[in-house]
């Protein structure tokens, strides 16, 4: 039993992710525990809002595994995020609330299918990375434009009105069970749901990134030609990663629509497509942990600045991006993490040197 | 017809530039060939065509009787063709250990123990065990070349293609490289095709030589025959002396 657990933890560790020591995993467990306890003591509004801020992390992680780990620069994850919200909205409005989880599954599955189609075209079509960036940006803007044109009663799917640029309203929250036994995921339950999903996705990604597959993602980023010469089909690696990233973005989109009870085309606009790139670049694109921290923090700052008007937050992000590129090319969170790791290592060595048993051997 | 590699009437042009013009030769399984020829005569172009990076304009390349021209690079690699290209390319940001892991994990699958064993063996063979944790981009040029050779041989390929493997190496490193290649060829029976300019290296290999000129194999023989052949002297050594 103990060794099974040990194998499990080992599979989550590796050079592709930060932290592997017992100290790291103890801290990780404490953070998880705090996340699960927080709603009990926190205020309703704050808990709900923090749950909402965590939703963006899924979008950040989606860009992170594509760009940071596999070297695919995609502006399209925002479109998948928004479209998943729309799919969830349309389906959930049309079915009884106790089946809303089914709507969530529909949203994620459809977006993964869409990712597969788009990914197949761009990777098997041999489109170069610059054009992938432009093409995926156009997809995002296309989704925004098309959905903005859907105002009027003729644009309805069942009882769901698409609502044009005003967006779709009346999207029910996620729920399991019905009647007296229902858990509706709003406020505190919503926070628990998001936190649990985030921990699951985070650990799942750690497992993936440190598996053989993760090494291939990194190899494809570093040198696609070399990777092919070792007998790996990089198109397949890119396509599978793209589908997984699409699914993670879609999960975020579903949670977003469910929390907001609303989704609008502006969630797929130019600003919305750019922000994830900044979260990822500023945090540290080759670390899911850095991106998790930076996405939450930056969206919190974004929210604070937005109270004073959108222009401040855009200005802040522009300056942040410049500073990151010039001063912390590996990302701000990653730079801090590396300094912390070095400090801990130095302390460990110092302690070993002092220990009477090992002192002589070092 | 028992050749492992058969090249037949291979042509390759880039736009109007005809580089390979009817190149033909064969290599039996387990043998080694050295491909010589003046700068820019198309040696690298041949290797790249053989591994699927270029599509031949005409002609055929066969591996154990099966045509491989037209296959994707990864498909050719899966048939047991391993390559070290002329321009060194290692995964610079990754450690030496991770570099080799990527090269072998297709063979060793998910079993961590057998994978680590193959990685350690390879590190031992190329003498980089003490550098296993270092970033590959920080290695000296010669060590990067070794790492690349190590990655190419780690998966036990049937055929090893090396494009100027000793470029930038010291004379001792060159001799060590020759020993590694000889061991692979003689003890493990690996078929090897090497492009090389360094004469000390070529003579250490003591293998039959193919001279490429004007897009086709101009002469085949031992190094001594090549050195004394009047025509080869003119096109090759003559141009350098
Ligand atoms: N992708 C390409 N597109 C156009 N021309 C090319 C391409 N690759 C090679 N060439 C040309 O083909 C010719 C042969 O080049 P190649 O690199 O095969 O020569 P080489 O025999 O390997 O020379 P060297 O000894 O310098 O390595 C050269 O004239 C080169 O400019
Ligand atoms: Mg060459």
TrEMBL record, chain A:
Which spans are transmembrane here?
A: 23-41, 53-72, 78-95, 102-123, 129-147, 159-178, 190-209, 239-259, 314-340
Question: Which UniProt keywords are given for this protein, alphabetically ordered?
Answer: Cell membrane, Membrane, Transmembrane, Transmembrane helix
Q: Which GO terms describe its cellular component?
A: plasma membrane
- One MF term from GO for this chain? branched-chain amino acid transmembrane transporter activity
Topological relation to the membrane, as annotated: Multi-pass membrane protein
- Mainly localized where? membrane
Per its UniProt record, what Pfam families does this chain match? BPD_transp_2
Compartments reported by the entry: Cell membrane
Name this polypeptide is given: ABC transporter permease
Q: Which organism is it from?
A: Metarhizobium album
Upper taxonomic lineage: Bacteria, Pseudomonadati, Pseudomonadota, Alphaproteobacteria, Hyphomicrobiales
Automatic annotation (TrEMBL), chain B:
SUPFAM superfamilies associated with the record: P-loop containing nucleoside triphosphate hydrolases (SSF52540)
| PROSITE patterns noted in UniProt | ABC_TRANSPORTER_2
What is a single molecular function from GO for this protein?
A: ATP hydrolysis activity
- GO cellular component terms listed in the entry, alphabetical order: plasma membrane
Q: Does the keyword ATP-binding apply?
A: yes
| Keywords of this entry | ATP-binding, Nucleotide-binding, Transport
Q: What superkingdom heads the lineage?
A: Bacteria
Q: Domain ABC transporter, which positions?
A: 5-239
Q: Which PANTHER family match?
A: CONSERVED COMPONENT OF ABC TRANSPORTER FOR NATURAL AMINO ACIDS-RELATED, HIGH-AFFINITY BRANCHED-CHAIN AMINO ACID TRANSPORT ATP-BINDING PROTEIN
Please report the name of this protein according to its UniProt entry: ABC transporter ATP-binding protein
Q: Which organism is it from?
A: Metarhizobium album
């Amino acid at each position: 039993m103990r060794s099974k657990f040990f194998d499990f933890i080992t599979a989550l560790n590796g050079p592709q992710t930060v932290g592997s020591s017992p100290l790291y995993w103890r801290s990780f467990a404490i953070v998880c525990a705090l996340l699960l306890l927080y709603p009990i003591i926190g205020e309703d509004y704050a808990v709900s809002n923090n749950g909402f801020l965590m939703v963006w992390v899924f979008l950040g992680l989606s860009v992170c595994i594509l760009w940071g780990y596999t070297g695919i620069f995609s502006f399209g994850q925002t479109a998948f995020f928004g479209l998943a919200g729309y799919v969830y909205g349309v389906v959930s409005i049309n079915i009884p609330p106790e089946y809303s989880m089914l709507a969530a599954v529909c949203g994620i599955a459809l977006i993964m299918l869409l990712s597969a189609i788009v990914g197949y075209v761009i990777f098997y079509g041999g489109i170069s990375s610059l054009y992938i960036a432009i093409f995926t940006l156009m997809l995002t803007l296309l989704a925004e434009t098309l959905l903005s044109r859907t105002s009027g009663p003729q644009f309805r799917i069942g009882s769901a009105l698409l609502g044009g640029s005003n967006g779709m309203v009346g999207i029910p929250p996620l729920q399991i069970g019905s009647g007296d036994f229902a858990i509706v995921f709003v406020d505190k339950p919503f926070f628990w749901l998001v936190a649990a999903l985030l921990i699951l996705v985070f650990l799942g990604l750690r497992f993936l990134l440190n598996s053989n597959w993760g090494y291939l993602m990194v190899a494809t980023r570093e040198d696609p030609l070399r990777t092919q010469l070792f007998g790996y089909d990089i198109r397949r690696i890119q396509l599978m990663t793209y589908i997984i990233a699409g699914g993670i973005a879609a999960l975020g989109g579903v949670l977003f629509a469910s929390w907001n009870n609303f989704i609008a085309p502006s969630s797929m606009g130019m600003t919305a497509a750019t922000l994830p790139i900044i979260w990822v670049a500023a945090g540290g694109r080759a670390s899911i942990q850095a991106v998790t921290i930076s996405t939450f923090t930056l969206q919190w700052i974004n929210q604070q600045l937005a109270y004073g008007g959108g222009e401040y937050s855009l200005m802040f992000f522009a300056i942040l991006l410049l500073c990151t590129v010039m001063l912390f090319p590996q990302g701000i969170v990653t730079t801090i993490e590396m300094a912390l790791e070095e400090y801990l290592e130095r302390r460990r060595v110092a302690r070993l040197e002092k220990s009477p048993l090992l002192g002589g051997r070092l | 017809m028992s050749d492992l590699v058969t090249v037949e009437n291979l042509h390759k042009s880039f736009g109007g530039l005809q580089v390979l013009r009817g190149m033909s030769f064969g290599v039996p399984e387990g043998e080694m060939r050295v491909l010589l020829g003046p700068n820019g005569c198309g040696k690298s172009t041949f290797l790249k065509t053989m591994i699927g990076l270029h599509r031949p304009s005409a002609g055929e390349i066969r591996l154990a009787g099966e045509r491989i021209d037209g296959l994707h690079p990864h498909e050719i690699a899966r048939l047991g063709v391993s390559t070290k290209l002329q321009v060194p390319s290692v995964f610079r940001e990754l450690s030496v250990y991770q570099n080799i892991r990527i090269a072998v994990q297709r063979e060793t699958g998910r079993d961590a123990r057998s994978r680590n064993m193959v990685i350690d063996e390879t590190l031992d063979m190329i003498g980089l065990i003490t550098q296993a944790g270092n970033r590959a981009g920080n290695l000296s040029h010669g060590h990067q070349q070794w790492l690349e050779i190590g990655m190419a041989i780690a998966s036990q390929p049937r055929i090893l293609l090396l494009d100027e493997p000793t470029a930038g190496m010291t004379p001792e490193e060159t001799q060590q490289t020759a020993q590694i290649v000889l061991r692979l060829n003689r003890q493990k029976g690996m078929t090897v095709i090497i492009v090389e300019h360094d004469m000390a290296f070529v003579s250490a290999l003591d293998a039959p030589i193919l001279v490429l000129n004007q897009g086709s194999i101009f002469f085949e023989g031992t190094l001594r025959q090549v050195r004394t052949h009047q025509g080869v002297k003119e096109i090759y050594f003559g141009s350098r002396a």
